[in-house]
Amino acid sequence: MTSRRRFLRASAVAAFGAGLPRLACAQQWPTKAIRAIIPFSAGSTIDIIGRIVTEPLSAALGQPIVIDNRAGAGGSIGTAVVAKAEPDGYTVLINASAHSAAPAVYPNAPYNAGRDLAAVANFGVVPNVVVISPAKGIKTLKQLVDAAKKGGMSFASAGVGSATHWAAERLRLSAGFEATHVPFKGGPEALTDVMTARVDFMCIGVSSALQLITGGKLLPLAVCTRKRSSALPDVPTTIESGYPDSDYTYWNGLLVPAKTSRSIVDRLYDETMKVLRLPAVIDKFKPQGIEPMPLTPKDFDAMIAKEIEQNIALVKAAGLKFN
Q1: Where are the alpha helices (H) located in the chain, listed in sequence order?
Q2: How do residues 252-311 score in pLDDT, each as one tens digit?
Q3: Would residue 241 count as lying in a domain?
């Protein structure tokens, strides 16, 4: 064998060997606990849904999935942690449509929502519901809008740029009234102030509000969807109530750092899809009014990219200002 042939053969073996650790890592993943960051408070809609999914997903992957709630700044604080994490599959993000609103609200965020994170699996769509304290004496969405047009109305959210904030802004813009935004660290905290009538109303996921609604502590005025929610079939939609383009798609799903291995993304996607088809998960989703939104990782990424553009355009067109 000539020296040149020996050199080429040795180079090929070395190149193949260098790729083995990476390949083996992807094949063996996961070999330790996975941290799932939820950028909102415990008890929030995305927290409830995330925990429903991660329990059986942990069993399927054979490793614990540890929930880490990092609330604040409309989800951007926790999201930034994942965006900067090692793309090794051991730090993942469970987020909602606040993710695609963040660039419009936080243009100087320390991460790029479209480039620094990759979508994996969409858990489904949750209806937002407009709720108010019965003590307010308002029984319909029209009555709420009429009262708001007289001035002095306030609405709560789980933070600037959260899905709860965005849904209320869409309703406010469609109905043509002004209201003071009162952001909280998370949905449960915001609901407490609405329930006690310190803040007038809120648009929040059915998952978070349903127990308070059935307990008579909150009154549902409308759902922010194009069709009625199976969880609240007698409650009209905001569109039915006369406010076009007031619906809001509140998706929930799983994302990872953008450079995560495709084999890990595919494994996460496949196992999550299996979990979402489990009868036990479907049964837990039903009372929450969660509707399926099956998307491939590629289609999920494309939807997020489109929403980012739409949200930036909406903020500019409406002249919204965020501090």
Answers
A1: 3-28, 45-61, 76-83, 98-105, 141-148, 163-175, 187-195, 206-214, 262-276, 279-285, 297-318
A2: 999 999 999 999 999 999 999 999 999 999 999 988 888 899 999 999 999 999 999 988
A3: no
- Helix, strand, or coil here: 244? coil
86 φ, ψ (degrees, to nearest 5): -60, 135
Q: How far is CA 91 from CA 42, 53, 78, 264, 297, in A?
A: 18, 16, 11, 12, 17
**Domain CATH number, residue 86:** 3.40.190.150
Total domain count for the chain?
2
- Cα-atom radius of gyration of the chain, to the nearest Å? 22
Higher pLDDT, 2 or 112: 112
**Residue 4: band (very low, low, confident or very high) from pLDDT cuts 50, 70, 90:** low
Task: Tell me how many degrees the CA angle 128-134-136 measures, rounded to the nearest 5.
Answer: 100
49 and 121 both lie in a single domain: yes
Whole-number Å distance between alpha carbons of 195 and 197: 5
Question: What pLDDT was estimated at residue 22?
Answer: 46
Q: Range of 170's domain?
A: 128-223
